[in-house]
Amino acid sequence: MDRYLSGVQLARLLAIDPGAKPYYRTLAATVRSLILDGRLPVRVRVPAERHLAEALGVSRTTVTSAYDRLREQGYLESRQGAGSWTALPDAGSLGAENPWIAAEDDGLLPLHCAAPSAARTLPAAIAAAGEGYPRYTLGMGYDPVGIAPLRQAVAARYCARGLATRPEQILITAGAQHGLHLLAMALLAPGDPFLLESPTYPHAIDLARARSARIVPVGIPDDGWHLDLLTSAMRQSGARLAYVIPDFHNPTGHLMDDATRAGLVSAARRHDTTLIVDETWSELDIDEVPRAAPLAAFDTDGRVISLGSASKLWWGGLRIGWIRAGAAMVRRLAALRASVDIASSLFEQLVVARLFEDIEETRAERRRSLGASRAALTTALAEHMPDWDYTVPRGGGSLWIRLPDHSGSLLAEAAACQGVRLAPGTWFGVDGTLEGRLRLPFTQSPQVITEGVARIAEARIRGPYGARPAPPLTPAL
Q1: Sequential DSSP letters for 56-119
Q2: Considering only CA atoms, which of 158, 155, 159 is closest in space to residue 146?
Q3: Which of 119, 245, 296, 444 is most deeply packed, by most CB within 10 A?
Q4: pLDDT band for position 3 (50/70/90)?
Q5: What pLDDT digit, counting tens, does each position of 241-275 carry?
Q6: Which of 312, 334, 309, 330 is nearest to 320 (CA)?
Q7: Which helix (H) or strand (E) holds 148?
Q8: What is the largest CA-CA distance in the chain?
Q9: Do the Cβ atoms of 253 and 396 come closer than 8 Å?
Q10: What is the DSSP letter of 296?
Q11: Whole-model pTM?
C-alpha cells in the first residue's frame, strides 16, 4: 500500500465545526462520509493518531476514540506496525452505525427503531407470572414447542380473528425473527430463489444473504401491492418460498385487502410457493378499519405459515414470538430448534400468556398512544419539512417518506451529528436501492418525536458534516 494522507491533508478534507459535540463522533462520521461519497478512497493509509490530532488541534485521545469507532463500523482496518487504512464494511451490513449493536444510552434519539415502550399491563403480568412460576420448577424447565397455556392463548387469538387454530399448530419462539430463521433453516437452501417485497424488513434481507439465497425482489408501489407483480414474480422465478408483511407493512404501513390476500394465496397454490406471513403489526390498527382476515384464512393446503410476536403490542424486551403452521411442520421445527436454543424462556412465556388475557385493553392503549405520536409527527413534518411526501397509514408504527431532493443515507449521517439516529431507505431495499426514502417511526412519545424532527430539520441545513454551509457571497453592486 503506497497511498497515504498526511495529518494536514486529512484535516483539510474534514472541515469540522470546532464546536461539534461529541467531537470524536463527529470526526468519525465525517471520515465515514468522505469514504462513502468517494472523496477519501478505500485502501488509503490515514495519518497516525498523533499527527491528525496535531493538525486538528485536539487531543490524541479524541482521535483514538474516532479511529476506534471507525474500526468497529468497518471503515478502518489496522495492523500492528503497518498503520490504519480506509475500508468499506461487508456488503451485507446495515451500514455505518450498525444500530442493532449500538448502546441504548449513546445519546442519540432512536428514530431508527419502530419499537414502542412497554404496555401498562406488563407489570401486573410479570407479577402474576412470578406467582405461578414456582410450580413449573418441578419439571425440566424447557419445552421445545412452548408451554401449553401460551400455545392455547395464541391459538384462541387466531380463532377470535376468524382462523380456526389448535394449540398443536403453534410453536413458541424467541421472537418472530427467531421463527423466521427456523423456517429458513427448514425450507431455504443455498441458491434457492426467495421472494421478498421491496421495501421489506431489513433482517429478512440479512437472512436471505446469510442463507446464500437468490433474492427475488417485488416492488410495492405507493398505492400498495399489485397482485400481478407478485404472481408474475412467483411464476418467472420459480420461488418456492416468499416472505410478505400484509398487516401494516413495515415500512410502508400498507394494509392488504381481503381480495388481494385471497389472490395471493391462490397464486402461491398455482406456483407451489410457500408463504411466510409476518403478522408482527397485525394488532396495531389506529384508525377504524375493516378487520382483515389472517392470510392463512384463505389457505386450503398448508402453504401459509404465520409469524407473530409480543414485541410490538406489549414490549420488545419480551423475546417471545410464535409460528402458526400445520402440526407436522410444528413438530419438524421443534426438532430443528434443538440445535439452536432448545426452548424459549419459561418465565417470559408465562408473562405473555397472562398478557393475552387483557389484549383488548392493550390494543386500546396502543391506539391512543400511537395515534397521539402519529399526530405529533405529521404536525412537526408539516412545520419543518412541508416538501416531504408520504401517506399517513391507518395503523402500524411508521411513515414511509419520499425525500424530494436528497439522499436518505446522507440525511442519516447529518442527523447523527444533530443527535438523531435515522433509518434510511437503503436499509429496506436490496443492493442499495431506495436511497431517496426514509422511514420515520411514531412509536416514541410526542415530545421525543417533536424534538427529533426539529433536529432533522437542522441537519438538512447543516449537512452531513455537522457544520452550516457558508452563506452565498453577496454580488457586488
Answers
A1: HTS-HHHHHHHHHHHHHHTSEEEETTTEEEE----TTS--TT-GGGS-TTSSSEEET---PPPP
A2: 155
A3: 245
A4: confident
A5: 999 999 999 999 999 999 999 999 999 999 999 99
A6: 309
A7: helix 148-160
A8: 90
A9: yes
A10: G
A11: 0.80
pLDDT band at 94 (very low <50, low <70, confident <90, very high): very low
Q: Quick one: which H or E segment has residue 216?
A: strand 214-219
Please give the Cα distance from 60 to 54 (Å, whole number): 8
Residue 314, CA distances (Å) to 126, 204, 205, 236, 285 in order: 12, 22, 25, 40, 14
Q: What type of residue is 412? A: A
> In this structure, what C-alpha cell is assigned to residue 401?
417518506
Nearest CA among 52, 55, 54 for reference residue 28: 52
Note the pLDDT tens digit of each residue in 344-395: 999 999 999 999 999 999 999 999 999 999 999 999 999 999 999 999 999 9
Q: Grid coordinates 444510552 are at which residue?
A: 105
Closest CA relative to residue 117, chosen from 361, 366, 375, 345: 366
Q: Among the ranges 81-90, 286-295, 371-380, 428-437, which has the highest mean pLDDT value? A: 371-380
Name every residue whose Cβ is closer than 8 Å to that of residue 27 and which is 6 or more positions away in sequence: 14, 16, 56, 62, 63, 66
Cell of 226: 399489485
For 162-220, what is each residue's pLDDT tens digit?
A: 999 999 999 999 999 999 999 999 999 999 999 999 999 999 999 999 999 999 999 99
CB 176 within 8 Å of CB 278? yes
